[in-house]
Write a structure and sequence with these properties.
The chain is an alpha/beta fold. It has a single domain, classed as TIM Barrel. Strand 11 and strand 12 form a beta hairpin. Helix 1 packs across helix 11. The radius of gyration is 21 Å and the shape is globular. About 3% of the residues have low confidence.
Length: 345
C-alpha cells in the first residue's frame, strides 16, 4: 500500500470509466504511515490509514472517479485500530456531514459465531449513524494474508452454512441494512496451482434461497437479500467470478494479483534495462554515459503502476464493470470539483 499503488487504482478506474474500492489493511496502513514509526496501540496504522484516506479523497477528485474507502481484515486483536478510524470518521462527520471512510471490515471469523455477531452489531450501530457500511466474515478464508495464516485449517471451515448466514441477516438487519457478508465458499487468499482450490459459489445461491424462504412475502424481488463479498478472488476462474456475481456478490478482493502485477512491472523494467542499472556511470552506450534516468525510482515505479492498471482493466472486464459512469473519452481532470479533503482548484 502506497500512494503509487493508490494512483494506479485511480488511473485504472478512470480508464475503465467505473468506480473502485480502495482498501487498507492494518499492515498496509502502518506501511503507508512509515515502518519507522512506533506502532504501539496501532498508532502508526491509524495515522497511516487516515493519511491514505486524505490522499485518496484529494486525488480521486482529480481523476473524477467515485471511490469507496474500505479497511480490510480487522481481527479481534486489531479492533483498537478500527476504533481509531471510526473515531476519525466521527470527527470528520461532525464537520462535513459524511464519514472519512466508506466501510470497515470486522473479521471475527476465528471467534464463536455468537461473539462475532454481537461485536458486529455494536460496530454496525455506531457506524451506520454516519452511513458507514460494515463488512463481516463468516467461516475461514484459507491461505495466508497480512500475517494471518489459515493454510492448515480443516476443509469444512472453508464453507459457510445457510443457517449461519441467515442468523447474521436476522440479527443485523434490524439495526441497519448497511452490511455485507464475506461468506466462504472455498475461498483462499493467494494464488495456487489449478485443482488446489475448489470454489463452490452455489453455496451463496443456497443461502439466498434459504433466507428468502424464511422471509416469505417479505423477501426482496430479486431474491438476493444478502450482499456478499468474495474474499481471496486472486487467480479465480472468470466463470466462478461471474457465477458468484449472479448469486449476490458485490465486491471481490484481488490483493495477491495486484501485488504481483506491481512487482511484475518492476521485474520487467529491470530485465529490459539491466545493463543500465548496475552503476551510476557507464552502460552499453558508453563508459561515461550516466544512468540516472534509468535508476530514478520513479521510472521503475511507473512501470509497476502501468502493469497494475493493465491487471485492473482485466478485473473490470471480469466483473462486468466497464463504462458505467459515462465520463467518456475526456482526459482525467478535476471533474467532480473541490470537495471535502480535495484541493481548491
Amino acid at each position: 500500500m502506497s500512494s503509487s499503488s493508490i494512483n494506479a487504482c485511480l488511473e485504472a478506474a478512470r480508464k475503465a470509466d467505473a468506480p473502485i474500492i480502495i482498501q487498507f489493511s492494518s499492515g498496509g496502513s502502518q506501511f503507508y504511515g512509515g515502518k519507522g514509526l512506533d506502532n504501539t496501540n496501532y498508532r502508526a496504522a491509524i495515522a497511516g490509514a487516515v493519511s491514505g484516506a486524505f490522499h485518496v479523497r484529494t486525488m480521486a477528485e482529480q481523476y473524477g472517479v467515485p471511490v469507496i474507502l474500505h479497511t480490510d481484515h480487522c481481527a479481534k486483536s486489531l479492533l483498537p485500530w478500527i476504533d481509531g478510524l471510526v473515531s476519525a470518521s466521527e470527527r470528520y462527520f461532525k464537520v462535513h456531514g459524511e464519514p472519512l471512510f466508506s466501510s470497515h471490515m470486522i473479521d471475527l471469523s476465528e471467534e464463536p459465531i455468537e461473539e462475532n455477531i454481537d461485536i458486529c452489531k455494536d460496530y454496525l450501530s455506531r457506524m451506520s449513524k454516519m452511513g458507514i457500511l460494515l463488512e463481516m466474515e463468516l467461516g475461514i478464508t484459507g491461505g495466508e494474508e497480512d500475517g494471518v495464516d489459515n493454510s492448515d485449517r480443516p476443509i469444512e471451515d472453508l464453507y459457510s452454512k445457510p443457517e449461519e448466514i441467515h442468523q447474521v441477516y436476522e440479527e443485523l438487519m434490524p439495526i441497519s441494512n448497511l452490511f455485507t457478508v464475506a461468506a466462504v465458499f472455498g475461498n483462499v487468499h493467494g494464488v495456487y496451482s489449478p485443482g488446489n482450490v475448489k470454489l463452490e459459489p452455489k453455496i451463496l445461491a443456497r443461502a439466498q434461497e434459504y433466507i428468502c424462504e424464511k422471509l416469505g412475502d417479505k423477501a426482496p424481488e430479486d431474491k438476493k437479500p444478502v450482499l456478499f463479498v468474495f474474499h481471496g478472488g486472486s487467480g479465480s476462474d472468470v466463470t466462478d467470478i461471474q457465477e458468484a456475481i449472479g448469486y449476490g456478490v458485490i465486491k471481490m478482493n484481488i490483493d495477491t494479483d495486484t501485488q504481483w502485477s506491481y512487482w511484475e512491472g518492476i521485474k520487467n523494467f529491470e530485465a529490459k534495462y539491466h545493463d543500465y542499472l548496475q552503476t551510476q556511470i557507464g552502460n552499453p552506450d558508453g563508459p561515461d554515459k550516466p544512468n540516472k534516468k534509468y535508476y530514478d525510482p520513479r521510472e521503475s515505479m511507473r512501470a509497476a503502476e502501468l502493469q497494475t492498471v493493465k491487471r485492473l482493466e482485466q478485473s473490470y472486464e471480469d466483473l462486468k464493470c466497464l463504462n458505467i459512469l459515462g465520463l467518456g473519452e475526456t482526459s482525467a481532470e478535476n471533474v467532480l470539483g473541490p470537495r471535502r479533503g480535495g484541493l481548491p482548484v
